[in-house]
Inverse folding.
């Protein structure tokens, strides 16, 4: 996924409209992130869909993100707190997006935004997101 953070993701559908995804990413403000989400998908959003629109689905999820700052980073998000002491953070996140998943080839192209709220070591708000492509096996 190209965005903030730059992320390698995997997604597994557990039902026609439910999936789990995981990712490992590198943030431009020098942090590593690990996330996991449970996602609900809604397809067939248009009354008379075109071939393209039939393959579109909206999704919304809930999950977590664990971030580790690089020790030498001196950016605003390096500390994840105001006092500059913490190098790790745990957040709840709520990703939402739209995915185009045609029958052939077995790929998915998506756009996603994921607001998150830090719960430890302090409370803070961040916004992650980007565009990506996945191959489904």
């Amino acid at each position: 996924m190209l965005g903030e953070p730059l992320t390698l993701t995997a997604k597994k559908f557990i039902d026609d409209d439910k999936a789990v995804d995981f990712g490992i990413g590198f943030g431009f403000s020098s942090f590593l992130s690990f996330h996991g989400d449970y996602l609900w998908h809604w397809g067939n959003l248009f009354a008379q869909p075109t071939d393209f629109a039939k393959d579109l689905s909206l999704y919304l999820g809930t999950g977590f993100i664990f971030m580790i700052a690089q020790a030498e980073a001196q950016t605003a998000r390096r500390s994840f707190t105001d006092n500059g002491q913490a190098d790790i953070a745990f957040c709840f996140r709520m990703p939402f997006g739209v995915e185009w998943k045609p029958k052939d080839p077995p790929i998915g192209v998506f756009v996603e935004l994921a607001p998150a709220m830090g719960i430890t070591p302090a409370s803070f708000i961040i916004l992650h997101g980007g565009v990506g492509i996945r191959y489904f096996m």
Summary: The first helix runs from residue 51 to 54. The helical segments are 51-54. The chain has one helix and nine strands.
